[in-house]
Specification:
This protein has 335 residues and is of the alpha/beta class. It contains 15 helices and nine strands. A hairpin with a 2-residue loop joins strand 8 and strand 9.
């Protein structure tokens, strides 16, 4: 964990940011949901203007990820990525209004949830793995509002006022939030209650993760779903979240069963690879709705620079080491 002075950690600054956020929510809440795309375009423009660093990260990620878009298409693609981020942000700000008008159930569409219901009848719970696609916050509220017992793993926000506010609206439909740090006990208890545990598995896991293939390159990936699945015999449900024609869809993919991996030489890595491959498949269906601004491959790029032999051992698809070295030779050091 990084330490040192950060202005955003100063209590008066945190309070001022919270007041600003509430004011923005109040203004955005005055608009009807149909106006969200127009408001989002303004926010998208401002984000691109003020956040050149993450725009560069998105461009780097796209240039090194096979089969997403051609090099000449990257600038326009990055603009669409920011348009999606802006819309997701606006939709999140509109949640208080949507809750008051029962709007979430009109916007969120749940499909293939019979797979979840069947798994819950087995009595061991379900691990749902998701990516940062479209409006994942809105979908979480919609799933809980439909009556499904939802427990979502989330990283706490540094600002305590904003964290308390987020916790209130995230939980008002019955969703439970498990703070990411020291969460193992709560994760196990949720599964023992025969409930759904939601884990986002598309972020860089640093030295805690296992290197698996993601868009043709090694990526450090969270393995806790694989560990829990193998230990307790719990099925994993890959979830596809996307936005289409003004609606947010949450579609359950075919379940991944731990029994299919127990006899493998490295079952944890192979199971992690299996659900990571599903996430890639879903992202490729709506690629501009994913979180390309995150430096997803930075741990592998750093390992390729500093410990190439260790990365080769931990990442069995050694032939693809070259793509990590290619990234490392460029601006891969950017965090």
């Amino acid at each position: 964990m990084k330490h040192g002075f950060r202005l955003r950690r100063v209590p008066p600054v945190q309070l001022a940011l919270y007041i600003l956020l509430r004011a923005v929510i109040m203004v955005v809440g005055m608009f009807h949901y149909s106006a969200a795309p127009a408001v989002a375009r303004v926010i998208s423009f401002l984000l691109r203007l003020l956040d050149a660093k993450h725009a560069r990260i998105a461009a780097k990620n796209l240039s090194l990820s096979s089969g997403v878009c051609r090099p000449e298409e990257i600038p326009a693609f990055v603009r669409r990525v920011y348009d999606n981020l802006g819309l997701s942000f606006v939709e999140t700000l509109m949640i208080p209004r949507l809750m008051g008008h029962r709007g979430i159930s009109k916007i969120v569409r749940l499909e293939r949830f019979d797979l979840i219901e069947g798994a819950l009848r087995e009595g061991r719970g379900v691990i749902a793995v998701i990516a940062h696609q479209a409006s994942w916050e809105l979908v979480g509220l919609g799933v809980a509002l439909a009556g499904y017992p939802l427990n979502s793993l989330a990283r706490p926000v540094e600002n305590p006022w904003i964290e308390d506010y987020l916790a209130r609206f995230r939980t008002q439909t019955g969703q439970r939030i498990i703070p990411k740090y020291h969460a193992l006990g709560e994760m196990v208890r949720a599964l023992r209650r025969n409930e759904i545990l939601v884990v986002q598995v598309d972020q860089d896991a640093r030295h805690f993760g296992v290197f698996v293939d993601f868009f043709g390159r090694p990526a450090s990936t969270h393995r806790s779903p694989a560990i829990l699945s193998l230990k307790y015999g719990i099925p994993i449900a890959p979830v596809n979240i996307y936005r289409e024609n003004g609606l947010c869809y949450c579609v359950i993919g075919d379940l991944i069963r731990p029994a299919d991996f127990r006899d493998r030489q490295d079952p944890i890595r192979d199971l992690t690879q299996a659900y990571t491959a599903r996430m890639e498949e879903f992202i490729r269906m709506h690629p501009d709705q994913w979180f390309w601004v995150h430096d997803r491959w930075k741990s592998a790029e750093r390992a390729a620079r500093e410990h190439p032999e260790l990365l080769r051992r931990r990442y069995s698809l050694g032939a693809r080491m070259e793509s990590a070295r290619e990234a490392a030779s460029g601006d891969g050091a950017e965090d």
